[in-house]
Input
Amino acid sequence: MANEQPEIPPPSPDDVLYDKREGFALITLNRPVVLNAINWSIQRRLFAALQRAETDEEVHAIIVTGAGRAFSAGGDIQATPPGDDEPTPSGMEINLKIWNMPKPVIAAVHGYAVGQGCELAGICDMTVAADDAIFGELQIRHGFAPPLLITPFIVGMKQAKETLMMGERISAEDALRMGMVNRVVPGDRLLAEAEDMARKLASLPQKTVKLNKLLVNRAYEVSGFSQALDYRSDPALADYVGPGEPDPHLKILREQGWEAFRRARDERYGEGESMGPG
Output
């Protein structure tokens, strides 16, 4: 059947791949069937991969990318909880791991980088996009606020409001214009470009590379970055960020499946192409 959904593989140790190369590490989100939607398995393994790269003295830069057709289509709203009691790092913990990492982290983005995927690319120190990349903070379509409030710090105020309040897709060229990415390259050059950047970073004086990342981060932190990330704890926002009413479209997802949910959601936006979990 044309609309038959592919079988989703069970969680696997290979959901995140780690490849140590000369001077840098390549970390790949590896759930291509669901466009690298982020579930507990990716969260655990991505955090572990970042820790591994941080503690390896031969690794001086890190690239994060996605296997298959996308960087990441965001949080996996179809995910089931893990079947064990092992701790799972939160999305915030993973993003802060990248932020506080003394080594530079480069996002190499192709295809979709939306929702949590957009924020993961945004928290990286630099982002290279293929010309087919699509960004977007789409959570408003489900009635959610952004898990990580990074967008106001990487684009201007007007652009941040449009991005967060309208939930539209953003092309690679528009993302470059807005400041969401550093460079846009042809798709077949994406990884090579990111690797060139990683090698350049690895060849520079490491103490100064780390210091300059720290200095830029510090400039944002003193301007309120940390408090903005912790917006859920702000009493002034308590009435707005509480549990609220569940999105009725999520009820469709539970009762009728992903395709019915996607049609009900996207009919408001005139978008017929499935992005996988959002």
